[in-house]
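dude i think i finally got it to work??
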Amino acid sequence: MPEAERMAHLTPEGGRWSGQRIGITGARGALGGALCRVLRQRGAEVIGLTHSPPPSLTDNGPNQWIVWHCGHEEQLEATLTELDILVINHGINPQGDLDPDTVDRALEINALSSWRLLRLFESIATRRGAEQPSEVWVNTSEAEIQPALSPVYELSKRLIGQLISLRGTQRGAVERERLRIRKLVLGPFRSDLNPIGLMTAGFVAQQVIFQAGLDLNLIIVTPNPLTYLLMPMHELARRLYSAMLSRRDR
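look at this
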């Protein structure tokens, strides 16, 4: 992966992100930190959204830290109003812990909190009506469709993944025009959550930015070739199923 990371780093896309205000949840994690670094290098103004006491500001981190907590997403409304792009990236991996309290916590952090942030940002973007549409990137993980050796993590990621797919079939023309939803389906990379990941967070961040620059809505970064085949098929099947059973009474 080091050679691939160097190749990704050679892809020039600075103009696309220059001047963009981008908020990233989970910005203190491996991927969040790598995204902050890459986006700042390309001219973006990055706001790190964190649950923990923020560290000192550095050239490799966000331009600004904002502290927030799951369950209180509405307190971020003023911050979200100022963003062009929101990257929903926070999460936990309880590994083999199947305690009911752990299940509740994982569902809340990995799925329900992300869903509330998406809906809040969608509402803001729809009201704002800017010429340039806002974007939200949601990190769901390839645990949506592949084993991750963590049953609760898989469950929570499948939930948020299916919610995003479901929402994609229900959005009206104005909502689509004003907010672009991109799904990030990422394979195992090295982090505190997964110290034996096959990829580096820096490589994954470079690839995410590269594919977003290609205007892809489904961004896949993984060493597993099956995911590139199965994930689009799953996404299409979910959307068709939801669309066929949808009842629009409005």
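The chain is about 45% helix and 15% strand.
im so relieved honestly
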